[in-house]
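Lecture notes, unit on binding sites. The following record was shown on slide 14. It pairs a sequence with 2-acetamido-2-deoxy-beta-D-glucopyranose.
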Amino acid sequence: MKTSVLFGLTLMFLCIFINGSLSKLERLEHPVTKSDDSLSFLVVGDWGRKGGFNQSLVAHQMGIVGEQLDIDFVISVGDNFYDDGLKGDNDPSFEESFSHIYTHPSLQKQCTIKSCSHPKRLEMVLSQIFNFVLSSGMVEFFLVDTNPFVEKYFTDPGDDTYDWSNVLPRKKHISNLLHDLDLELKKSRATWKFVVGHHGIKTAGQHGVTQELVDQLLPILEENKVDLYINGHDHCLQHIGSDGEIQFLTSGGGSKAWRGETQPWDPKELKLYYDGQGFMSFHITHSQAKFVYYDVFGNVLHQSKWCKDSKTFGLF
Ligand SMILES: *[C@@H]1O[C@H](CO)[C@@H](O)[C@H](O)[C@H]1NC(C)=O
């Protein structure tokens, strides 16, 4: 195992029941020193169900693929601990849904970014920037806490309780976040700019598009030539994209799936829609981003090679 690897199962975005936010986007830098000058990682979302609903099968395959790719870290795109998030540092759900599930050696990486309630392997953040420095360029991840954008959580929360103490007043919070994101994207010298959120911008899944994000976030991503937008929320695996445009990737198949409620989408754009469980892997070099979707048996469902300069799909 590479010791240069910087952090491990990095879980981005708390469950929607635990809220909070940084007032400024913080940039955390990590040099990558793999001999082939690449960055590899997995993305899983919507997973914490004590191993149930195929969570354990997905975790097992993540371990195998993680080893093959010698991954640098794992991104979770949210909804980490069902149903209500973690209740404090000693909540047994942490073991039952995380440390006893993602057990493969390839997933055990030391977490060296700033501490949190479970500093050993789990880092939970809301909005933040992670910067990975290859010798040939940089890969930058802009994590955006998309929960405050969703109007319904404020006007019609149903049985869910949210702590918005770090979000209110909401309008100001959102405008600050968008302003900071825009600024940081403009400042960025990274070759690759990936934005990660929980909710979908383009998705044919059960929840459908998050109109608030289409209206407010998407224009900033387009203006700043973001390469990929990665999300969870819809419990499926999905790739929506066209040549020359941002690719929209959903990896929300970490446990419960098979909802059977797909919405129509232009088949020219919808490269993959898989309603079951699974996860994604990424392998990034200076010129190409390869991403692969796997089912619970590790079968490849779909793969794509996105070429940086031409912004087109290449042969794998
Ligand atoms: C687990 O995965 C298999 C294969 O995709 C599927 O047939 C089965 O329905 C899944 N189980 C659950 C509980 O989702």
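Take-home: Residues 170-187 form the longest helix (18 residues).
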